[in-house]
Structures are given as C-alpha cells and as structure tokens.
Specification:
Length: 99
C-alpha cells in the first residue's frame, strides 16, 4: 500500500519528498501526478515505503506537518475505485430506429 500526501507546494520534487519520508524509513517510490494538458503538478503525491510499520510512523509524524509553507495532509492511500468504463449506453450509433 502507499501513502497519500496532499496540499503540496507545486514546486516540490520527488527528491524533496524522498528526503522528508526517508527520515521514517526506506522509500521505495514517489509518484507526483501532473496535469496532462498543462504539465503542472496536481498538488498531491503518493509515497511507497518498504514496510507498513514505516508507513504508519511517517503518516503519524507528517500529517499536519508544516512544510514548504503548507500544512501536509498525509494518510493511507485508498485504492482507485473502478469507474465502470465500458459501454456508455445509448443506441450505439447515429441512426434512429423506426419500427
């Protein structure tokens, strides 16, 4: 599982986050999502650590922590929900059916 980190400065880097979380254990991966159109960071990240214990300690210590002028929101990341996808309904084409 990974950690959700919200309310981040738009200037933060993966190295910045790795440095902060490394104080609480070994960081496996940092993901900083960006907007596909603008390339700008979205203001949140996901951090994965080696163990659940390290993650729990980092969450407890960093939630509400003031960093880069912002109060961090740090908690256990929730799994991405299935958005359904697939067919969207309708009659499947641009033609109307007359019976």
């Amino acid at each position: 599982m990974s950690i959700y980190v919200g309310n981040l400065s738009y200037d933060v880097t993966e190295n910045d986050l790795t440095g902060v979380f490394a104080e609480y254990g070994n960081v496996v991966r940092v993901l900083l999502p960006t907007d596909q159109e603008t390339g700008r960071q979205k203001g949140f990240a996901f951090v994965e650590m080696v163990s659940d214990v390290e993650e729990a300690i980092a969450i407890a210590e960093l939630d509400g922590y003031e960093w880069m002028g912002r109060s961090l929101k740090v908690n256990k990341a929730k799994p991405k929900e299935d958005r359904g996808g697939g067919r969207r309904g309708g009659d499947g084409g641009g033609y109307s059916r007359r019976y």
